[in-house]
Amino acid sequence: QSVLTQPPSASGTPGQRVTISCSGSSSNIGSNPVNWYQQLPGTAPKLLIYSNNQRPSGVPDRFSGSKSGTSASLAISGLQSEDEADYYCATWDDGLTFGGGTKLTVL
Amino acid sequence: EVQLVESGGDLVQPGGSLRLSCAASGFTFSSFDIHWVRQVTGKGLEWVSTIRTAGDTYYADSVKGRFTISRENAKNSLYLQMDSLRAEDTAVYYCARDGMVGSRPLDYWGQGTLVTVSS
To answer: Looking at the complex, does the CB of residue B27 fall below 8 Å from at least one CB of chain A?
Structure first.
């Protein structure tokens, strides 16, 4: 059972906007910034968003993050087939803590 | 180009030991905190351990007292000594670099090495 709660699955059609939520508590998300990772099938995770809403170089601006209180969200606009992946939120709370992951399916 | 390459994964019996290595290149290894993260096949990510630049170490409760993280800056290498292994330690183990900014994102990951604990 992860300390950070994510929906196990999400889906959308090409071109749509999809959001993935990450719910925590005052000791983790409420006190620390959130990072998001994308894991394409069969590959290692990749940093997607850091410090709640910052994109590393090379990450398309279709990906955006936000945080409010003890929750965070990842939004993907203009959904593409190559966005089909697992997405994990993460923050620090007595160690690094990951959400359970959300499997995004592009229909 | 930043690269992290794990090695040492293998099949080991319960109660056995294994030492994982992570070879780093393309950056000043000694200036970065490094982490081990594991993933059971088909499951989510689990943080295992962290070593900071000053040598401070941190462990998940699930491995505390059984795993030891270390680094050898002269060799640009990270290690994870795994003792008293259990079936539930079976996973792909990734090493990842800490981005060393406020949110401490893991900005580069290795490809992972598979550890299987089974008799």
So the answer is: no
